[in-house]
Write a structure and sequence with these properties.
heterodimer, A: 255 residues, mainly alpha, MetI-like fold, two-stranded antiparallel ribbon, 9 helices, 2 strands, 2% strand, B: mainly alpha, 76% helix
């Protein structure tokens, strides 16, 4: 089958503009979801460490359920069926957001068309799904890091007279965080990759824009290769960050 | 609540519109959870061999063997699976000269995608064995290939089984992505029933999630139990 490669169309005009917008949306949804997922993950992990049994069970059930169901199904759930979980007023507000979006505007001589359309229902749904999904993984990473510190450290610091909170604050967490941060960075990378799934509900991220270029210009190979290149650059950047972190901060802990 | 929608369509969720007939695979038009599991099993089977090759190639000292594997593993690990599926879906007709069915396309994609992750598992498993094993095997007169084949890999692969099961769980979850290009597996049957009935979204998606959860949770607990059992018999440094 003959296929005429036409790489030039990706470099200028509408396709380049679309890919740039998609890239910005991917970064936006990833950053917002990452910050929220970190917070939620820490909360879930703390619930797991509290000595109160029902909270532990809740945390365990949360982690097991959201880690063992596909993100795509969760996205469909939050988009189609969230009216049972999210209160009706909030749902209505989310659906109305679209109407008070300011529309295209220009700032510092640049025409912003769709790049900053943060607040629509698809975006928020995508953020909710990614947050809830990633928080389960992040909670598990943090818990693994804390549990890798031998238990006698906690006992020793309690015996020295530190309170439970102080023991965590001054003894356990400083050691655990050093172990936890590299897997957390790779979770962030996973989140950026997972954000591509949000295209199925219509978040205009990089994948959505690539398939839009594909259907408008009939250049599937070029469009997806460009998207592939951008994702690879993102992940290259993140792995450089991990390597730099490991080089500077990773100290061999001796027990 | 409209649980009757779920009850009416439950067989469709489980095996889709499968029908028995006399022509060779005997079961045609298979879908639903059964198709997801078939995709996952076929994917992990192909990915094992690709991953074994890639992982061992990455350990090689010759640059022309090592760097293709490094390139493959790092590139696949840096891209989302959805992108790989779309990419291959459009690449396959160019390469083969004829269009490939969506089911086969996604199966190949799962093999390629999971192969990279299994390559990393294999590499880590081989590196994790104490170096004395390789030295002793080489010292007793085995060639490098023989030492790998009869001493290192049998131990390393056994220690890797829990990681393989974990990878299988994550592949089972990833089979949901096949629905995006139209393979009629569990997620897509959910989309179909949801779009047809329109009033049972909550019930349908909870059921789909529960079906995935049951499969994945059973496998996860198996892998945890295996991990505890296998760690007793590992070769150690001291």
């Amino acid at each position: 089958m003959a296929y005429n490669f036409n790489w030039e169309i990706m470099l200028s005009g509408e396709p380049a503009q679309w890919m740039w917008e998609g890239f910005v949306t991917t970064l936006q949804i990833s950053v917002v979801a990452l910050v929220l997922a970190m917070l939620l993950g820490i909360v879930i992990c703390v619930l797991r460490l509290t000595p109160f049994k029902p909270l532990q069970w809740f945390s365990l059930a949360y982690v097991e359920f959201f880690r063992n169901t596909p993100l795509l199904v969760q996205i469909f759930f939050w988009y189609n069926a969230s009216h049972f979980v999210i209160p009706a007023g909030l749902n209505e507000w989310m659906n109305d957001l679209y109407y008070w979006f300011p529309g295209p505007f220009s700032l510092f001589g640049h025409e912003y068309i769709g790049e900053w359309m943060l607040f629509n229902v698809e975006f928020i749904t995508g953020v909710i799904a990614l947050t809830v999904y990633s928080a389960a993984f992040i909670a598990e990473e943090i818990r693994a890091g804390i549990f890798s510190i031998p238990k006698n450290q906690l006992e020793a610091s309690r015996a020295v007279g530190l309170s439970f909170f102080q023991a965590y604050r001054y003894v356990i967490l400083p050691q655990a965080l050093r172990i936890v941060i590299p897997p957390l960075i790779s979770q962030a990378l996973n989140l950026i990759k997972n954000s591509s799934l949000c295209m199925v509900i219509g978040v205009t991220d990089l994948m959505f824009m690539a398939s839009q270029v594909e259907s408008y210009y009939g250049a599937p190979f070029e469009a997806f290769s460009a998207a592939l290149l951008i994702y690879l650059l993102i992940s290259l950047f993140v792995s450089i960050c991990i390597n730099m972190y490991n080089k500077h901060f990773m100290i061999q802990v001796r027990y | 609540m409209h649980w009757d929608i779920v009850i009416d369509n439950f067989d469709y969720f489980l095996w889709g519109a499968a029908k028995l007939d006399g022509i060779f695979p005997y079961i045609h038009n298979i879908g639903g959870l059964a198709a997801a599991i078939i995709l996952a099993i076929a994917g992990i089977f192909g990915a094992f061999w690709i991953g074994l090759a890639a992982g061992l190639m990455r350990l090689s000292k010759k640059w022309w063997i090592k760097y293709p594997a490094v390139f493959y593993i790092e590139m696949i690990r840096g891209m989302p699976l959805l992108l790989l599926i779309f990419w291959f879906f459009f690449l396959a007709p160019v390469l083969l000269g004829q269009s490939l069915p969506a089911f086969t396309t996604t199966m190949v994609c799962f093999m390629i995608f999971t192969g990279a992750y299994i390559g990393e598992i294999v590499r880590a498993g081989v590196v994790a064995l104490p170096s004395g094993q390789m030295e002793a095997a080489r010292g007793s007169g085995l060639s490098k290939y023989q030492a790998m084949r009869f001493v290192i890999l049998p131990q390393a692969l056994r220690n890797m089984i829990p990681s393989f099961v974990n990878q299988f769980v994550s592949l089972t979850k990833d089979t949901s992505l096949a629905s995006v290009i139209g393979v009629n597996e569990l997620t897509r049957t959910g989309v179909q029933v949801d779009n047809r009935e329109m009033i049972g979204s909550f019930e349908v998606w909870i059921t789909i999630a529960a079906l995935y959860f049951v499969v994945c949770y059973i496998l996860t607990s198996i892998s945890r139990r295996m991990e505890a059992q296998l760690s007793r018999y590992q070769a150690r440094d001291r």
